């Protein structure tokens, strides 16, 4: 029985857009210290896990660490990163998944929820590609084929890539290319979805291939994404926004989504970029798949995906996440509600991450805006207005083109006339969705990070990247029934973004004064220092006395949030008399 296109639990419409399967995620209570072994489960804190062990044996299932390595190693790695970098890493050791036939997942989730050792167990809908619904390119719609004689090579389609042009129509990639590093040199990007053709004639340079998971033969979508970001700079086909960036991929074909995100994070450096080209059926229609994708939302709403994204952004990696094509207001209170079985409940610490308080994944979330009217002789509404399928809300940081994107793949724009089935020579004029919008933002960020690295500067942090995307760019515009209050943010403008990222200032000052008794150690803290500032602290005595040292100090650092740093300064009086001090700062650049 169906209702309005909604399919029954566990069933989804037949579509090549659905390549993954539902996932059963289990979250253990942290105090239990659960450990999965080849013989079952044990507790590192001597908690009684025998009922859970008996259930697993009776049901013939096992708990597998979601993030692929042992709980002890996950704990040790988090502690090491936190110690070295002064940041808080989410506890990934409590997350598990269960591999079982789809028809058993709902019942298993409810049985596992009843275990004292388990904080939560829930079933997640499959992840799907965030390509715009109902407008899949027809293979012959705009096909450019010679009438008389085939050209010697693929034509050059760069003039059709209007998103490369100056603002407000495009992101002004052409300006970025005139700046050292502006083509994305020394920047790594990993795209997470299913399939890619790294053998494509226009994707031969600076490509890292598939790093994990099995590459799917359903490769048009991924090929189109890579073309937008890193299409080769040559005399034919397309050119990516940041063609010098090294673009690789991780496939969800055989890896749970949260696990794939962590694997990508571990292969990237601070300042590198990860792209999540997926969305999921959300609570609006009870998590059921729909051919029109209505109600689909950004994946960070699910606790394990949130934790994985938070892990990546905590390490300084910029995560760009498609907002989804569900026509949803992500400010709606429906997203505050912890779902019921078998899709929930989520753990007690979960709060709606779309509010970014108290949970903030650190991701940059991208909506889909209309291209300039007349692009490819079509009109989707005012330039930069929200496209009707795009999710919207305060969560959204920036927008990209959601229709009419010219890139590699699909074959509706061009196929080799001598070999029309050769997918390595396919191009499209109609790539769409928050799927086409997100790579435009990735390409723009790749250009900025390349410039910063070329200038010997520290690359943008996730928080700084988000801040700059929100404070620069070409503003969203109204459309009938889709006002700017339905936020999808600005379209990036590299002519603004790059100078703003390079902007710096220097100054010194005294932050506080105090007195330290003889032989004593006192501690001060000073907070809300922007995380992208470079600050040096010096403490000097202001009580004159010659002949021997008076004080020493140590600075400790807390990453209080993505955006702010707290400095803790321990000052020790090494003399036999009380000493007055002042703490001086020098901001070397911001």
Structure, explained:
By secondary structure, the protein is of the alpha/beta class. It has three domains: 23-124, no CATH class; 128-502, Peptidase S8/S53 domain (Rossmann fold), CATH 3.40.50; 507-589, Sandwich (Jelly Rolls), CATH 2.60.120. It contains ten helices and 24 strands. The protein has helices at residues 50-59, 71-85, 102-113, 173-176, 220-230, 257-266, 303-314, 434-454, 462-471, 494-502; strands at 23-28, 34-37, 40-43, 64-65, 95-98, 118-124, 127-129, 188-193, 207-212, 246-251, 273-276, 278-281, 296-297, 318-322, 364-369, 398-401, 405-408, 427-431, 507-516, 521-530, 534-541, 551-559, 564-573, 579-589. It has a seven-stranded parallel sheet with strand order 9-10-8-11-14-15-16, with helices on both faces. A four-stranded antiparallel sheet has the order 4-5-1-6, covered by helices on one side. Strands 7-12-13 form a three-stranded antiparallel sheet, with no helix packed on it. The longest helix is centred in the C-terminal third of the chain and has 21 residues, at 434-454. The N and C termini lie far apart (59 Å).
Summarize the structure.
The protein is an alpha/beta fold and 590 residues long. It has helices at residues 50-59, 71-85, 102-113, 173-176, 220-230, 257-266, 303-314, 434-454, 462-471, 494-502; strands at 23-28, 34-37, 40-43, 64-65, 95-98, 118-124, 127-129, 188-193, 207-212, 246-251, 273-276, 278-281, 296-297, 318-322, 364-369, 398-401, 405-408, 427-431, 507-516, 521-530, 534-541, 551-559, 564-573, 579-589. The chain is globular.
């Amino acid at each position: 029985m169906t209702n309005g296109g909604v399919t029954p639990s566990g069933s989804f419409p037949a579509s090549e857009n659905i390549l993954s399967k539902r996932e059963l995620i289990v979250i253990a209570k942290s105090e239990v210290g659960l450990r999965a072994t080849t013989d079952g489960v044990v507790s590192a804190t001597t908690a009684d896990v025998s009922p859970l062990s008996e259930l697993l044996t009776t049901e013939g299932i096992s708990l597998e660490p979601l993030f692929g390595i042992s709980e002890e190693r996950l704990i040790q790695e988090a502690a090491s990163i936190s110690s070295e970098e002064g940041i808080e890493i989410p506890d990934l050791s409590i997350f598990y998944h269960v591999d079982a036939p789809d028809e058993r997942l709902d019942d298993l989730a409810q049985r596992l929820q009843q275990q004292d050792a388990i904080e939560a167990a829930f079933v997640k809908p499959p992840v799907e590609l965030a390509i715009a619904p109902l407008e899949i390119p027809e293979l012959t719609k705009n096909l450019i084929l010679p009438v008389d004689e085939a050209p010697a090579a693929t034509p050059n389609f760069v003039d059709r890539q209007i998103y490369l042009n100056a603002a407000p129509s495009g992101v002004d990639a052409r300006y970025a290319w005139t700046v050292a590093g502006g083509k994305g040199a020394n920047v790594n990007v990993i795209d997470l979805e299913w399939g890619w053709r790294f053998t494509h004639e226009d994707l031969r340079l600076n490509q890292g291939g598939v790093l994990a998971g099995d590459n799917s033969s359903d490769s048009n979508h991924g090929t189109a994404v890579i073309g937008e970001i890193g299409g080769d700079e040559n005399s034919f086909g397309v050119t990516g926004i940041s063609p010098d960036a090294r673009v690789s991929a991780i496939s969800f074909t055989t890896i749970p989504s949260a696990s794939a995100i962590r694997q990508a994070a571990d292969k990237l450096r601070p300042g590198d970029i990860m792209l999540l080209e997926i969305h999921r059926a959300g609570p609006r229609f009870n998590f059921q798949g729909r051919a029109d994708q209505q109600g689909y939302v950004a994946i960070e709403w699910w606790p394990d995906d949130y934790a994985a994204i938070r892990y990546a952004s905590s390490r300084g990696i910029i995560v760009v996440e498609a907002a989804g094509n569900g026509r949803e207001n992500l400010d709606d209170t429906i997203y505050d509600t912890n779902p019921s079985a078998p899709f929930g409940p989520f753990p007690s610490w979960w709060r709606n991450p779309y509010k970014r308080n108290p949970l903030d994944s650190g991701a940059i979330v991208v909506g889909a805006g209309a291209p300039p009217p007349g692009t490819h002789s079509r009109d989707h509404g005012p330039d930069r207005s929200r496209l009707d399928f795009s999710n919207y809300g305060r969560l959204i940081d920036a927008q990209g083109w959601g229709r009419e994107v010219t890139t590699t793949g699909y074959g509706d724009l061009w196929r080799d006339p001598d070999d029309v089935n050769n997918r390595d020579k396919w191009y499209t004029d109609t790539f769409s969705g928050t799927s086409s919008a997100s790579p435009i933002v990735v390409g723009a960020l790749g250009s900025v990070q390349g410039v910063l690295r070329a200038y010997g500067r520290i690359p943008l942090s996730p928080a700084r990247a988000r801040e700059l995307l929100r404070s620069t760019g070409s503003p969203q515009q109204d459309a009938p029934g889709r006002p700017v209050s339905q936020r999808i943010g600005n379209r990036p403008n590299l002519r603004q973004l790059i100078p703003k990222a390079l902007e710096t200032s220097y100054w010194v000052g005294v932050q506080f004064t105090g007195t330290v008794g003889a032989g004593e150690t006192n501690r001060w803290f000073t907070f809300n220092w922007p995380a992208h500032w470079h600050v040096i602290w010096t403490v000097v005595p202001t009580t004159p006395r010659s002949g021997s040292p008076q004080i020493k100090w140590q600075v400790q650092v807390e990453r209080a949030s993505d955006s702010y740093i707290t400095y803790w300064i321990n000052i020790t009086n090494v003399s036999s008399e009380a000493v007055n001090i002042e703490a001086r700062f020098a901001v070397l650049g911001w």
